[in-house]
Fold Glycosyltransferase.
Amino acid sequence: MTTPVADPLIVASVPGRHVYVRHLAAEVEERVTRLPDPDPDDPRRPAQQTWWPPVMLDPDWIAREHFDVFHLQFGFDAWSPEGLQTVVDALRRKGTPIVYTVHDLRNPHHEDRTLHDAQLDVLVPAADALVTLTEGAAEEITMRWGRTAHVVPHPHVVDLATMARVALRGERSRRRGPRIGLHVKSLRASMNPLELLSTILAFVSATPHAVLQVNGHRDVLEPDGARYDAHLARQLRLAADRGLVDLHVHDFMTDAELYAYLASLDVSVLPYRFGTHSGWLEACRDVGTTVVAPDCGYYADQAPVFSYRNDGIGFDGSSLRAALEDAVAHPGWGAATVAERRAQRARIADFHADLYASLVR
């Protein structure tokens, strides 16, 4: 007798198109169907590129659509706690279980943590199940709210085919010296790369054939940019003019351009003053780039990194220098292989499918 195959559970993932959410699913998914993000301009059709603001957070959308589980990941940065409570209430009226993955215990986009703390005070107690990425974050969740979160590691960020191509090329092994990256992109509130610059420059100057590459977006480093930082731009251009920095100013990178850039580095320095977890860190692991990360948040809990002191209160340049020395001496530290990421992804997909099923029984 053949056992009937259960219909896949329908999950509203907020958002569905984010790379993290896409890689929660097995490469061939049979147990879970995730709804496509509705187009913000026309919620009747799936979004093509833009998923923000997430239509799935609209209580009216929640009331009229069919799904078995609501899984919140990102996208509520600008929501008031009262607005989030209306989302919770709409789901409660339907009897739909809520899963919340706590990526950020401190929002990297907010200098003032008050709003995010208030948002978490709504979401964490309301969730039927909580997931987070590290043991450290889970301990903080227990300490702050008395809740237990499942700890599930971050899946790969770079697609597996690109990972395989990077592993085959092996370009870094042919260099005379290390290339260290300090990326300033569109500066988040949590970033302060200028504070690190003199220490990294001193290290590079003392390290034979070392290069410091700084990439930044035009909106930060050019005068007509919406987020122009005149002091940072001036210091970087002065260093570039003296031959101390390989400065690249550009528009937003595509995923392919970003992964190629990360793969071109031996070391990537994360210039954060606060935060919790990092997708950038995972992308570096995918392409074999060693990461130097601050000791704020749970970056060292998330994956193998070399840590320096920068906790939002004090920055210690000597610890950054020591971390750079270790990073240069350990190329590919923490790198993940395609086989490891594929197996990890299968485990993560199984975990989520089991969790969803446990909530709708």
The domain at 160-329 is CATH 3.40.50.2000 (Rossmann fold). The radius of gyration is 22 Å.
